[in-house]
Amino acid sequence: MFTKYVLPLLAVAGVTFAVYTVVQARQTPPPSQPLITPPTRPSKIQTIAGAGLIEARQENIPIAVNIPGTVVEVFVKKGDHVQAGAPLFRIDDRDYKAQLLVREAELASSKAQLHKLEAAPRPEDVPPAEAAVEAARAKLLDAETRYRRSDKLNERQMIAPSDYDIDHFSYLNAKAALAQSEADLKRIKAGSWKEDIAIARAAVQLAESQVANIKINLDRLTIRAPIGGEVLQLNVRLGQYAALAWREPMIVLGDVNRLHVRVDIDENDLPYFERNNDAVATLKGRPQVRFPLKFRYVEPYVIPKQSLTGTNSERVDTRVLQVVYELPDDSPVPLFVGQQMDVYLKAATAPKGVSLETELNLPRLPFEEDEPAKAKAGS
User: Fold this and answer.
1) Tens digits of per-residue pLDDT, 141-166?
2) How many domains does the chain have?
3) Which of 42, 43, 176, 311 has the smallest C-beta neighbourhood within 10 Å, fewest atoms?
């Protein structure tokens, strides 16, 4: 009974199940739907596609330090709006304040020395010099009287020659002493030498420049905003040592009232690019929202394309031209600096003077001219 009825039924059921399984396995599964609809080119027009990156109107400005040091005060937070010249953070300035005291003391000393030279002669210096002249004149009269008396006695040979010489040289010495005293009095009344005053003035200017240099450095220790804008990034912390070379900017500023998008156009598409052609952009993940773009400027230097990782070392083997467009003010969705966009530009119908639909009229190369003859000879 089992062999006659059950086994054939089981065999038929197994074959039926195998056929059903094979048929189901060979059916094409329905296509899977992506979680986010991919971007699509605008229809009915030939376009150029490029990757775009949203940036501030005056580009993103990285802020660094002019003088390294320890951060002792931070004045802003992320997202703050600052005016041009507003303080952002401050570096420890105790060393420069101590240097300023030294330079100011040197400046005061230089000014005092200059004032001393310009105020010469002192009223107290003139009377002693005049008294010295009168004393020298009196000594000259005394020496002259003794010399004349000795001269007469010497003519009569009534005095020793040595005594005559003593009186003679005493007279000459007194005459020279009077001349020296009069010259000293004249020098005192004339005041300081103009070259000495010039040297003193130069010393004052040097000291003033050193003081001004210290004050400038003190002001540079307070890092200020070069433009008005929003604090997009804040990578500085209280107590952090701010070095001249840092792996990332301390602060990134940008004017977000009007946003731009920087588009990388592949060098292969450059013959089809025109500045004022229509352009639209879509956000990553929001391809259904389109933004009309307004051309601003081209950076006329083709550069190696960089991947959007933030590093300068990761590059691919292609070059791009960077074009900057302006985004509309009335955006239907929020936009943020640093977002990626897919940008589509209306392509030119042809490069200037060249038809893209026909072959370029280029001269044949020497080896190309022989190809038809070779083909005919071979046939």
Assistant:
1) 999 998 888 888 888 888 888 888 89
2) 1
3) 43
